Amino acid sequence: MSRRMKFFIFLLVINFIVVVIYVIWNHLRGKEKNLSTWMKAIVMLLCPVVGPTFLCAAFLLYKLFMSQAMDLSDVVFSKERVKTFIPPDEERGRNMVSIEEALEVTDKKSLRTFMMNVIRGDYRKYLSSISLALNNEDTETAHYAASILQDVLGEFRENVQEKYQLSQMEDEQQVQHCIELIEYMNPILEQKILTNLEQNSMIERMDEVLEKAWSLEPEKISSVVYEKLCARLMEIPDYEKCGKWAQRSIEQYPGVLSSYTCQLKLFFSNGDKENFFRVMNELKASDITIDKETLELIRIFM
Predict the structure, then answer these.
(1) By mean pLDDT, which of 133-142, 180-189, 220-229, 293-302 is the weakest?
(2) CB–CB of 160/181 below 8 Å?
(3) Which single residue of 1, 26, 122, 166 could bond 177 by disulfide (Cβ 3.0 to 4.6 Å)?
(4) What is the pLDDT of residues 260-272, one digit of tens each?
(5) How far, in Å, CA of 166 to CA of 171, rounded?
(6) Distance from C-alpha of 151 to C-alpha of 157, rounded to nearest angstrom
(7) pTM score > 0.70 for this model?
(8) What residues contact 102, with CB distance under 8 A and at least 6 apart?
(9) What is the pLDDT of residues 103-125, one digit of tens each?
(10) Each residue of 129-144: b (16+ CB within 10 Å) or e?
(11) Omega of the bond prior to 237 within 30 degrees of 0, cis?
């Protein structure tokens, strides 16, 4: 037997031993699937020198470059920076119309069906639009609208009275009860479905309970609560009280946009140009980002 043949047989034996060791080692480790292990073993058996060399080189490259821990120091996992974009439901959107448009429908059956669907859904955000149906020529549609408003407003008045009584109790939760009352009243009052007399009375109650909270613990009042009350007071309009709360808001939250927009809207409503431009210049000099609504307000006033 020639020397070359002996060397070739020696390589085959060594290669077979390497394959056996590799299969046993992988089996004991249990970190790799059996199919992957046997496929690599077959490659090493069919290619005695090239196969093991290639697999060893691939393994070394993986360990050197791919298995290192990643540097995540520059990655920010802040929830405030995440925006989730939910695609619109186009099929549902094609089958929906605004309540105002639906009231123009002459087909009484379709209009009644639409009103029944509104009743089954979350209709509290659309009370101002539903109130338009009270004067509809179809008596049944008007009845549906009246039933909705009667139920909602009855529950609203009852809950306001209960929450108001809680806000008058002098305990550790008094300030929180005052703030909760304002946040409960605002979604209904901003739709302007009450009579003028009752609307004004409710807004005055909001002013009363927030004054109580401010006298006790003003630091618990958020800028959003200030903004809501200022908006309702401007609708009455009660510019004096609105100015009081707008001033308190900017003193407590000088770095929040709503503190400036409350004053801008107030001075815009009562035509006070001097103070409007004063606040506008203060806002421009600050680091606060101005939104489109505020820019449009400034453009209209100028």
Answers:
(1) 133-142
(2) yes
(3) 166
(4) 999 999 998 888 8
(5) 9
(6) 10
(7) no
(8) 111, 114, 115
(9) 555 555 566 565 655 555 555 66
(10) bbbebeebebeebeeb
(11) yes
